[in-house]
Protein 1
Amino acid sequence: MKCKICGNKAVIKLRAHNIALCEKDYIAFFEKRVLKTIRKYRMFDKDHKILVAVSGGKDSLSIWELLLSRGFNAVGLYIDLGIENYSEDSKSKCINFAKDKNAELEIANVKEYFNGLSIPEIARYVRRKTCSVCGLIKRYIMNRRALEGGYDVLVTGHNLDDEVSTLFGNMIHWQVEYLARQFPVLEKNHDKMVKKVKPFVTSTEREVAAYALMKGIDYMEKECPFSIGATSLFYKRLLNELEEKQPGSKLRFLNGFYENSGIFQTFRKELKLRACERCGYPTTETVCSFCRLRERIGNIVEKSEDRL
Ligand code: AMP
Ligand code: FES
Ligand code: ZN
């Protein structure tokens, strides 16, 4: 197998693009496609102050690496979730990466907002699924830290497989309102809401993993213990089976959806955002779900302290 560009020995074959490449040409090919996606969806440019949410996994460290190596002004943000045997290791990966690249890393800690409780403890207290509590808290902290730090845009590492499995799930359940909002760019539509972008939406998980490997990124391989059995992983397996039979179908499915997303816009409900009475960040209600969660936790902790 020879590299299509230089004729040297190829190290990766991309059936979706009908191309085999050597390491050097793969890195160039991969970066060029991501930069094209950034330009196509007008995500950001070199004048912007970028905050990259990094989990320590291959996707977010790879996008940070790509942006740094291409001269973008990109600072990392790690959110410590307090998940045993997982958060400490993933935090170390982010700290080591930042040190190695001489890059700036901000660290936020969930415990600072929730009376010293970790994500699994909060979920247990309020009897909700860990991942849904975690998602709500991460989204809030990312947005808030981005605004407090004066950043123009927040980048996450969501890849093509993540987006296609979300799309598939939204279609299976005909979540038309979610379909009307699914896009690689979420514009700022409130003065306390930062623009959010996903530059890896056109890169598969395999392509990102190959890039991380070739770039020598030391990332966290362990998955979050609460993701075991997640429906999104089941969808990803189904979609990989489809991809195996019909290379390129994941990319065609997602690109076709973006091109035709106008179809779903009739279902878009304009959310009336206002400032949360407690924290001032946007919400559709009087008090935002983050502050309500904080209050519930505060009450529970107070009650249990009374009992001591
Ligand atoms: P996930 O929701 O775990 O699939 O992660 C999606 C994206 O959210 C990642 O690619 C990161 O950009 C970001 N992210 C996830 N966990 C964290 C974390 N603990 N701290 C900062 N960013 C995170
Ligand atoms: Fe939040 Fe797994 S990363 S529960
Ligand atoms: Zn609030």
Protein 2
Amino acid sequence: MAAESSAFRGAILYFRDDPGSASAADSHVYLEDGLLVVEDGHVVRAGPAEALLASLPKGTPVTDRRGLLLMPGFVDAHVHYAQTDVIASGGGTLLDWLERHIFPEEMRFAERAHASEVADFFLDELLRHGTTTALVFGSVHRASADAFFEAAGKRRMRLGAGQVMMDRHCPEGLRDTPESAHRDAHELIERWDGQGRLHYAITPRFAITSSDEQLRRAGELARAHPNAFVHSHLAENVAEVEWVRRLFPAARSYLDVYERFGLLRERAIYAHCIHLDAEDRRRMAQTGAAAAFCPTSNLFLGSGLFDIEATDAAHMRFALATDVGAGTSFSLLQTMQDAYKVAQQKGQSLSALRAFYLATLGGARALRLEDRIGSFEPGREADFIVLDPAATPLMERRMRTAKTLEERLFAWMILGDERAVRETYVLGKPASTSARAAARSH
Ligand code: GUN
Ligand code: ZN
């Protein structure tokens, strides 16, 4: 069969390196009038439109998006699909919020039909917000993982997810056992890990809700399946850290609990990582584990302020994440905005260029998927979004005086949300179109 080619013309931005560490000029590629050439769902190349148009095979359809910005799809490094329906449930901090809002909600995912309905909504919502890859918590029920992977497979998105392990300090209806969790995870890995674009994530909820035996078995799985993700929470809240200290008196720190059980390695992603010390950060960097910085969640639950400078000083990888339902938006643009504000509160800085890096190539690197997604280098999977600089009257007005790329990105990050995401493409095919774009095409 002949290869299926297509091309997309517009401004183009993608990253080659972290603007926080590389010299700014080398970190990214920006083309005012660019062309993204796609074949069979993969990037052939991105370059100047004038030059590339002439070299396109005859008959290649060119989609004209001049005036808009094409960039790789966003990566959300930590989010809970089973909490979609309790986003914006307020009051209290982490531990009482879990008891009051989250555990009762997650009980509903014992039922497969409910899990499937939420998974479909959740994934369409990710796409509508420009997110094409995410690392996702389910609930403790096996049905929650099967339903999710089925919905994800239909959309051909690159996603990691897993059934949550929790065998103590939670309601009876949400409790598994070390044996059942191990068996379920093993079977789910066999069934789903590496199927199409899907990845399994070994998902102990956090040290409080897993016994030593459960963590030990999770570590065994992590060793036996090095390509699967490890996905958990770490050092989010002061009361949580204190409880972990009492539960594991022999451990040097909260992080050390996970390390002792073999849960620190590449493709291990820990949400929050706020209350860490220098040794913890050093161990994360050395083992290749990565942090998911969840600013909207951390502000919502009053958990604390992520320390970007200390993370950089330790050479730790980190990504951005929404952490819905504690997070308050599925939008990585809104997440960047709150990341900027957290940095401000710490007396630190986060440039718009770096925020967009973190939401794309930085996220891909944290998940160790940078050879597949996160940029427009030749051969990458063609997951991309089309950003609108005039999504609202105020944005349109502000963009008129934003002269440089950095100024325009800054306006998108501070004023933007899903309204700025005109279209989302998965493997070169339209996967979501905003109401505004749809209305215009009629
Ligand atoms: N720690 C353990 N479980 C959770 C959860 O569901 N959300 C957040 N934000 N933190 C957690
Ligand atoms: Zn979380």
